[in-house]
Design brief:
alpha/beta, twelve-stranded mixed β-sheet
Length: 348
């Protein structure tokens, strides 16, 4: 990759009735953002015009029929649809979900075809996106199917990174979903991501216990003793800097997390409640382990403030910057590893 090349950032607009378009448009209302990337928004001219007028946001954009025609120095809108969908701010509608998926599908296809370099997704509603041809609980599962690799939900800031052993499943299903293969796989995905995406050569990873107090030596559940500890011991002996399982209730409160490059939580709320409390709305949802880079803000559709101009776009802007930085880190990692392999061949 040439250092001077400005990356094309593909953007799916999320639920039309939520705050997705608002945080996107507010981000690029600051024209200095065009110095960092070329935005390619997958929607339609009519939809973006309606949104910016309704929200009182002043931006100019360039309409194109294909992402490959995007122009640097401009906000580009790919016309994915010609019709004018009904927008009802703050309402969960089937139409809102349908167009969120149309935008996402088009953006992912462009990503697979290298018409865009990275993807940043605005929030969707996991209920109204469901249809006969889209039966995924969210972005992560869909992207895992469409892109090469094994996906992992990785919540990130500069100072805190939290991955999940299990993500969007009922709490009652968590213990049965965690086994040695899952623990090894997810830990290795995080380890590889920290090396390749964040430039951390020897990452230290902490695993949180499944049960309260990590089971208290089997008194409060046996999963930590019988499943977690043997795998952690095995990986540690194999040279991985993996530690735990730690009791989740005291781990964050005692600043224990600061000693590690990443934390692997057993289930969704165990990891995301402390993450969102500590990140103050500046966190980013990154899908690690895939062949392409995808990030998202760490909030949802926020129907309760949609259309009112109140949405904070900081998390979306952070997601955009993180996607650009991860792409560049990956390219640097690729070049370094290729050079190392070439040197080995020469020595032989």
């Amino acid at each position: 990759m040439q250092e001077s090349r400005i990356l094309r950032v593909g953007i799916s607009i999320g639920d039309l009735n939520g705050i997705g378009c608002e945080v996107i448009l507010k981000t690029f209302e600051d024209t200095r953002m065009l110095e960092f990337c070329t935005p390619v928004i997958f929607a339609s001219n009519k939809t973006i015009t309606h949104q910016k007028n309704a929200l009182g946001i002043t931006i100019n954009y360039n309409g194109v029929h294909d992402a490959s025609k995007a122009i640097d120095g401009k906000i580009n809108v790919v016309n994915v649809w010609k019709e004018t969908p009904k927008i009802e701010f703050g309402k969960e509608t089937k139409e809102g979900g349908a167009y969120a998926i149309k935008s996402l599908r088009a953006a992912v296809e462009a990503l697979k075809e290298d018409k865009i370099d990275v993807l940043v997704t605005a929030p969707i509603n996991k209920k109204n996106i469901q249809s006969e041809d889209f039966k995924f609980p969210g972005h992560t599962d869909y992207l895992a199917k469409e892109l090469e690799g094994e996906s992992l939900m990785f919540m990130i800031t500069d100072d805190l990174k939290v991955g999940l052993l299990t993500d969007h499943i009922p709490v009652k299903d968590v213990p049965a979903s965690i086994n040695p293969i899952v623990i090894r796989t997810k830990t290795r995905i995080i380890e590889k991501s920290l090396q390749m995406d964040f430039g951390i050569r020897r990452p230290k990873i902490a695993l949180l216990g499944i049960n309260p107090h990590s089971g208290d030596h089997g008194v409060i559940g046996k999963e930590d003793e019988e499943i977690m500890k043997p795998v952690i011991k095995e990986m540690s002996e194999a040279g991985h800097l993996v530690y735990g399982p730690y009791s989740a209730d005291s781990f964050f409160g005692s600043d224990g997390y600061k000693k590690f490059d990443a934390i692997l939580a057993a289930y969704h709320d165990q990891g995301l409640i402390p993450f969102k409390t500590l990140s103050f709305g500046n966190g980013v949802n990154y899908t690690a382990g895939l062949s392409k880079v995808r990030t998202s803000p760490d909030h949802g559709t926020a129907y309760e403030i949609a259309g009112q101009g109140k949405a904070d776009h900081n998390s979306f802007k952070e997601a955009l910057f993180k996607a650009i930085q991860i792409f560049k880190n990956r390219e640097e990692y690729r070049q370094l590893t290729e050079n190392a392999l070439q040197k080995q061949k020469i020595r032989r």
